[in-house]
Amino acid sequence: MLSRRTIAAAALLALASTPLLAQTAAEKQLASDKFTLVAPFPPGGPIDTLARVIADGLAKRYNQTALVDNAPGAAGNIGMDKVKRGKPDGHTLLVIPAGNLTVNPTLMPKFPFDIQKDFVPVAMLAKTPNVLVTNPGTGIKTVAELIARAKGKPDSLSYASPGVGSGLHLAGELFKSQADVDILHIAYKGTPPAINDVIGGTVPLMFSNLPTVLPHIRSGKLVALAVTDSARTPTAPEIPTLAELGVPGVVVPSWYGLLAPAGTPADVVAQLARDAAAILAEPAVRERLQGQGLSAWDIQTTAFDKHIRDETVRWAKVIKDRNITME
């Protein structure tokens, strides 16, 4: 007769071995090789951070090497091409910002990808609000004052952006449309020079993602007027939304997604989506993201695909209505 101790030990052994016995075909596939997370922008930004978070999580979950491949250039197209040509087995993945999926296909005359045919949406990873900021020297402290200035002195205000067609440029154009004001757009080659000129007073206004300008807001070099999201952000809850201030419809967060090459099996994509959600739900990961102004945003596979399609239609209308071109 087996002792109670022997029975208990056998039960514990059975429980310990259950995950291995219950491992799905998709999980076995993902555990079979190393991962490469392609980040098509330089190290240091939110794309790089998210790629490393997902890489670290997948490495732990599958006991595999997971590398981050920073592949900047051609507005992200070089990294996207790497993933498009990658083996569709779940081990080559793309971490990408919204604009590359929803704006560039309309804005770029020779955009080299068909988002729906070349990639498979896995999951939304995170978002961060954009924020409307101004130089303190303008004397503008509220959105109402900004609108009054723009209407009272037409052509007296301008706003900087990191480039034509960037999400921050489009946020500015959408704001102009919804607030019925005319503010001159000044395009820069990247975010740093644009921010430097707003801080220096060369240009009075700018839309920027919150993590980039938050230190300057805290130091008093910039004044935050409103965030472009549907709700206030936990990172800076004192900053109101534009909708609260009477300018609805300007919901333009910066968001980042995870994609795989076309042809990746559906069960593998679904498993990766579950893995990403579990990784982003870890308290240490959430704390790390919040420290950079990012919030995990769990939208998976089919719903993520719909979001990309809807946003593409939305921005195509803005681009057409505001006559925005790359030329």
Your description of this structure?
With 327 residues, this protein is an alpha/beta fold. The chain folds into 2 domains: 6-127 and 255-321, Bordetella uptake gene, domain 1 (D-Maltodextrin-Binding Protein, domain 2); 130-227, Periplasmic binding protein-like II (D-Maltodextrin-Binding Protein, domain 2, 3-Layer(aba) Sandwich). The chain is 46% helix and 18% strand. The protein contains 14 helices and 11 strands. The protein has helices at 4-21, 25-30, 46-62, 77-84, 98-102, 104-107, 115-118, 143-152, 167-179, 191-200, 210-219, 266-281, 283-290, 301-321, and strands at 35-39, 66-70, 92-97, 119-128, 130-134, 158-161, 184-187, 205-209, 223-227, 254-261, 295-296. A 6-stranded mixed β-sheet has the order 2-1-3-10-4-11, with helices on both faces. A 5-stranded mixed β-sheet has the order 7-6-8-5-9, sandwiched between helices. Strand 1, helix 3 and strand 2 (66-70) form a beta-alpha-beta unit. Helix 3 (46-62) crosses helix 12. It is globular and about 65 Å long.
